[in-house]
Amino acid sequence: MKKHAAREIAMERITILVAHALQEQDPLLAAAQAKLAKKIAMRFQLKLPYAIRQLYCKKCKMFIIPGKHSRVRIGRSGTKAVRITCLRCGHVYRKILK
Ligand SMILES: [Zn+2]
């Protein structure tokens, strides 16, 4: 029970950190907040929701802000897939939407 509560608090902190990072004007500060959020997730072995996971490039592991450091393309109607391009390292990955 106690452990569960700690994980819930950790998840809350991650959500807040990521929200701040997204609004942060200073890219260094944003990266620091995002890094801390990921560190907390790893420590508590939390599985981050897709909305947060997509903010980290799978290749260079950097925090990528959609529209700023990444290009998000939604496939034509019917395909239901998004293509995310990391503008830092150029890595492209796809996500099939259910
Ligand atoms: Zn990248």
The CATH architecture of the largest domain can be given as Up-down Bundle
β-strand percent reads 15-25%
Note the run of SSEs as H and E.
HHHEEE
**What's the main sheet like?**
3 strands, antiparallel
Number of strands: 3
Termini separation comes to: 33 Å
Structural class: alpha+beta
Question: Can you tell me the overall shape?
Answer: globular
CATH topology-level name of the largest domain: Single alpha-helices involved in coiled-coils or other helix-helix interfaces
**What helical percentage do the residues reach?**
40-55%
How many H/I helical runs?
Answer: 3
Biggest sheet strand line-up: 1-2-3
Computed over alpha carbons, the radius of gyration is 15 Å
* CATH class call of the largest domain: Mainly Alpha
What is the mean pLDDT?
90
Overall number of domains: 2
The hetero compounds bound to this protein are: zinc ion
Spans of at least 5 consecutive residues whose pLDDT stays below 50 are none
Structure description:
This protein is α+β, with helices and mostly antiparallel strands. 44% of the residues lie in helices and 16% in strands. It has helices spanning 2-23, 27-43, 50-53; strands at residues 70-74, 81-86, 92-96. Helix 1 packs antiparallel against helix 2 (27-43). The mean pLDDT is 90. The site of zinc ion has 8 residues, from loops.
